[in-house]
Design brief:
By secondary structure, this protein is an alpha/beta fold. It has 17 helices and 20 strands.
Length: 537
């Protein structure tokens, strides 16, 4: 039986980040992945000859630059190309474009509402303030507010110091931000319906909530606090698809002597005397390790690969109650050429960014109503991009790859998912795009359609939840995944968590992996190889 210092379960980007920092500290580390490929949700696969799909995650922004630098991921091939715009088509044949250039953006908003052109300056400043505040906590371990340990007291004091720097009015506004719906929050700034809807979209992505549901305002912040090349809130394409993120992390990990085994599904974390002893694979093979790190979500970790007898009853109950409802689908499309969009001026750069087709809050809320009734939305919210315009490696010359993130898609439609229903869901998305591009359907050569069923079965995302747990106020910071276990340590000695079920949550960020590695190295009294927490000081 092989012996390792640490075993990491799951070769998703957080698992690989965790493993890389552990290996960098000199530990003998093994990463086990049940699929024949690495990356989890951050993977690129050729499912149609010549086309490379970013099968699940599709844009890069949240990945922490501190991790990129600490692991020298540029040397391992990771390149991120900024996305320059976003836009929303209107049903009346017009469009709204949001550009990165301030003057062009202002002129475009004025075309829809002069008042909103002034309001967007205030909106940007306020969101940037909250981004800077929250970013300071991304690479820090949350304090346990019920603990008197010096490190918890210090962390609480740090948190209080940051809030003390805000004015009384800003503190009240920050609390409101975490508890308000995105629609109500944006209505404090904007009046134009299309502008409101355009900026609301980011708050429902991956979330089982609607635009009028309390708590969705924070999801906007979660998507806005990333950066590309130092530009806060910017998004980018990883050259070669999102699998390039996992490939670079794996390269860094292996350069430190780490080992990856694919087609190696973990059936059980083995425990003796309230201490981990290693893992048992589905094949029956047992592998010993002093430390076992689960990159799986909280439900999968505590309810599937751990024996209930090894856990406190309270942990089992909290894992069962952990909110992890899936609400998203994905359609990747191989195109024979570039589709045209008559609403846009010829040669418009808006095709190079995020494209949306939902122009009113009512349509967004009706799409959510379908999901609540366990139906895929008849008029879904789609976030569509064509990354092959930036990255020729994604498709043959003259051809294009389109990626479409879809909200809302239920976990269990009436009677459950079948291949026929999956194809009908995909056709709904294709039909919506076709309403705005007359030649689009004729260009479709192949489509990969993913519902929560595929996201769970292929990637291991419970119920297809892309964040490994909803980003609601009761499941953030020291409540993530649940109180008492927010510092990446499990209830069994030597067992840790590194996935997006832990602070600071979902997205291709790497922070949960780095933070958990820091705590492991601290417990093992090894040198800390993880980057220092981000600070705007």
């Amino acid at each position: 039986m092989n012996n390792y210092d640490a075993i990491v379960i799951g070769a998703g980007h957080n698992g690989l980040t965790n493993a890389a920092f552990l290996a960098k500290a000199g530990l003998r580390v093994l990463v086990l992945e049940r699929n024949p490929y690495i990356g989890g949700a951050s993977t690129s696969r050729e499912l149609h000859k010549g086309w490379k799909y970013s099968n699940a995650s599709y844009v890069c922004s949240l990945f922490r630059p501190e991790i990129y630098n600490a692991l020298d991921l540029g040397r391992h091939g990771l390149r991120v190309i900024p996305v320059n715009s976003s836009m929303t088509f209107k049903q009346d044949g017009d469009y709204f474009g949001s550009y990165t250039q301030p003057n062009i953006r202002r002129r475009e908003i004025m075309r829809h509402s002069p008042r909103d052109a002034d309001a967007v300056v205030r909106f940007d400043a306020d969101v940037l303030r909250w981004c800077k505040l929250v970013r300071g906590f991304l690479l820090r371990t949350p304090p346990n507010p019920g603990s008197l340990k010096p490190r918890d007291i210090f962390e609480l004091a740090y948190l209080m110091k940051k809030f003390y720097e805000l004015t009384e009015a800003q503190i009240y506004e920050f609390i409101r931000f975490f508890t308000m719906s995105i629609a109500e929050y944006l209505e404090n700034y904007f009046e134009n319906e299309t502008v409101l809807t355009h900026y609301s979209g980011g708050s429902i992505i991956g979330t089982g909530l609607g635009v009028y549901s309390p708590g969705t305002a924070y999801v906007l912040l979660h998507h806005a606090m990333g950066d590309v090349d130092g530009n806060v809130g910017a998004w980018g394409f990883a050259r070669g698809g999102m699998g390039s993120v996992a490939k670079a992390l794996a390269g860094a990990f292996q350069s430190y002597g780490g080992e990856i085994r694919s087609d190696a599904e973990v059936a059980k974390i083995t425990v003796a005397g309230n201490k981990v002893t290693g893992v048992e694979l589905a094949s029956g093979e047992k592998i010993a390790a002093k430390v076992v790190v689960s990159n799986l979500d909280a439900k999968r970790t505590f309810l599937q690969i751990m024996d209930e007898a090894d856990l406190p009853p309270k942990v089992v109950q909290r894992a069962r109650n952990f909110k992890i409802r899936g609400s998203s689908g994905k359609v990747n499309i191989a195109l024979d050429g570039m589709p045209t969009f008559p609403a846009l001026p010829e040669g418009s750069t808006l095709t190079q960014g995020h494209m949306h087709f939902t122009d009113t809050l009512k349509r967004l809320e009706l799409a959510y109503d379908d999901w609540k009734e366990d139906r895929w939305s008849a008029d879904p919210y789609c976030d569509m991009l064509i990354p092959s315009q930036y990255d020729p490696s994604m498709a043959p010359q003259g051809k294009h790859m389109m990626t479409v993130f879809v909200q809302y898609c239920p976990v269990n439609p009436d009677g459950g998912w079948t291949d026929e229903k999956r194809d009908q869901f995909g056709q709904t998305v294709i039909d919506q795009i076709g309403d705005y591009s007359p030649d689009f359907k004729d260009l479709v050569l192949h489509a990969e359609i993913r519902t929560p069923r595929e996201l769970e079965n292929e990637i291991g995302l419970t119920e297809g939840n892309i964040f490994q747990g909803e980003l609601t106020f009761d499941q953030l910071a020291f409540n993530r995944p649940f109180p008492g276990y927010a510092q990446y340590r499990g209830p069994v000695k030597g067992m840790y968590m590194s996935g997006s079920s832990t602070h600071p949550g979902g997205g291709v960020m790497g922070a949960p992996g780095a933070n958990s590695a820091r705590e492991i190295l601290k417990d093992l009294r090894k040198p800390d190889t993880t980057p220092e927490a981000y600070s705007d000081d």
